[in-house]
Write the structure tokens for this entry.
Amino acid sequence: MNSELHIKPGKDLAPQIYEFYRNKICFGDYKPGDKLPSYKSLAEKYAVSYSPIKTAYQSLEREGYIHLSTKGSIVIEQPKTVKENIASKLDEILQTALDFGAAKEDIVEAIDFIMEKYC
């Protein structure tokens, strides 16, 4: 897993930030109680505006990966919340695949493909 965010020019920045930190949380690079970098530090590091960073962090919070405190810190949530969220998303995706007539073998092959991509 990359330790640095590599911004792809011409692509929407918020989804890139979201995906990068979601993956780092899911793969254990950030533990419950750890803090993510502040909006300001990321904006300065990557020479970007706060807006896409805020959007990405809000998406992470909405999905239960982090908690944005009123004091401005961004804290990783407990793993149970993340695991439940992942299970819920997988359930939705699998149900959609089955609704479209995907066979069990197709689903397993797709999961293997994705795991190879990220692990």
In short: The CA atoms of residues 35 and 75 lie 4 Å apart. Helices lie at 13-26, 39-46, 50-62, 79-99, 104-118.
